[in-house]
Amino acid sequence: MSFEWISMISASWVSAIGTLLAVIVALFVTFRDKRLSRAKLSLSVHNTPPDWCHVLRKFSADHEVWVFVPRFRVANAGPAAAKSVEAVLHNLEKRNENEWELQQNFLGGKLPWTDEGERRLPLLIPGIAKLVDLGEIKLQESLDNDYTIMKFSLPSDTDTSVDENLLMSGDKSGPFQYRFQITIAAENARPVSYTLKLKITGEWRGPGESKAMAKDGVALQMC
Question: What is the pTM of this model?
Answer without folding.
Answer: 0.79
